[in-house]
């Protein structure tokens, strides 16, 4: 591939001028569909002169054949070598470049964007030299849906009988954890079934059921945990027999 081989040439060229060990290694967490800001800041006392500046954003982990993410060369963007994946999705802060802010905005993030990115800044005195080099690792999470609890099936509130609740969650990333809890004392409840599948788009879906004896006014919670986002999505079901008909129970849903 043309873009692959020429980006390799760029790397060689940069090393010929002296490789700079990455000084920073940051982690950025972004959700699918949102805009990620990959930080690269190198302030100087004097303002940078744009036509003596080059900013290269590349994929640094070697995981892709094509590694060119964004190129700014001597006052102009030049995306002729940019990987097709990134077309129209990258922006520099044009009016902040002279102040040493070389951060990149990556629009409409998807799971395929999980890479380590490298920002390489060159300044021209006599020739262009690398003055700054920073790595940023992008972690992508998905949390676009809420867990869904079904209406209970089974006899309710007959003593000794159990009702079944099911909790479904779709399109989470990375693989979520699921917990069922007794919300009265926050003790954990053991699911009677649990299935986690990875869909074609890489996201995870969860299907779980719980059988409980509805012998009192009971509140049950289904919690979906995204460890990367440090986020718990909780749906509660307060089992009610609103029609006072033996055997018929409904769920009063509350999201937290
Ligand atoms: C953009 O870069 C390519 C090769 O890297 C070069 O051939 C082309 O002339 C450049 N375009 C502009 C407008 O500088
Ligand atoms: C990028 O944007 C240009 C101009 O808006 C458009 O013509 C082109 O089709 C877009 N390319 C992609 C890959 O979305
Ligand atoms: C965002 O990217 C997805 C594919 O990853 C695409 O289907 C969708 O149309 C894009 N949305 C926008 C607003 O460009
Ligand atoms: C997903 O996470 C983001 C960032 O933490 C948050 O702003 C958003 O509300 C969450 N989405 C849902 C459906 O909870
Ligand atoms: C959850 O998924 C199972 C299996 O696909 C389905 O039978 C059930 O109706 C779903 N429940 C809800 C509340 O969507
Ligand atoms: C929920 O907790 C309350 C208080 O500890 C307890 O009385 C009740 O039996 C528990 N329900 C279930 C289904 O474990
Ligand atoms: C259960 O957990 C919720 C949320 O973490 C909290 O607000 C509530 O006070 C807890 N209840 C008990 C009985 O510990
Ligand atoms: C989510 O809830 C589970 C179960 O109650 C708990 O162990 C975990 O620490 C919670 N995680 C976060 C990020 O609040």
UniProtKB/TrEMBL annotation:
InterPro entries assigned: BTN3A2-like_Ig-C, Ig-like_dom, Ig-like_dom_sf, Ig-like_fold, Ig_sub, IgSF_BTN/MOG
GO molecular function terms listed in the Swiss-Prot or TrEMBL record: identical protein binding; receptor ligand activity
PROSITE patterns: IG_LIKE (PS50835)
Protein's name in the database: Inducible T cell costimulator ligand
Biological process annotations from GO: positive regulation of interleukin-4 production; T cell receptor signaling pathway; T follicular helper cell differentiation
Leader peptide range in chain numbering: 1-22
Originating organism: Gopherus evgoodei
PANTHER family in the cross-refs: BUTYROPHILIN, ICOS LIGAND
